[in-house]
Design brief:
This protein is mainly α. Helix content is 45%, strand content 0%.
């Protein structure tokens, strides 16, 4: 899980979009990105960024 958190935070910069693939290749085992999401969101907010859902981001007329 920490690898997923580290990967997301290393890519963090203004305007970045984090895309997490929730699931495993074979449909078995732990879903690491899903488990990492709360830590990623907390770290992103701690660094002064905000999070929005993809639907909100793509909605017409939304001010970012």
């Amino acid at each position: 899980m920490q690898k997923a958190v580290k990967r997301a935070l290393e890519a963090l910069k203004p305007g970045a979009i984090a895309q997490l693939h929730i699931g495993t290749l074979d449909g078995q085992g732990p879903v690491i990105d899903a488990q990492a999401v709360p830590q990623i969101i907390d770290a992103v907010r701690t660094r002064g960024y905000r999070t929005v859902g993809l639907r909100t981001l793509l909605a017409p007329g939304v001010t970012r």
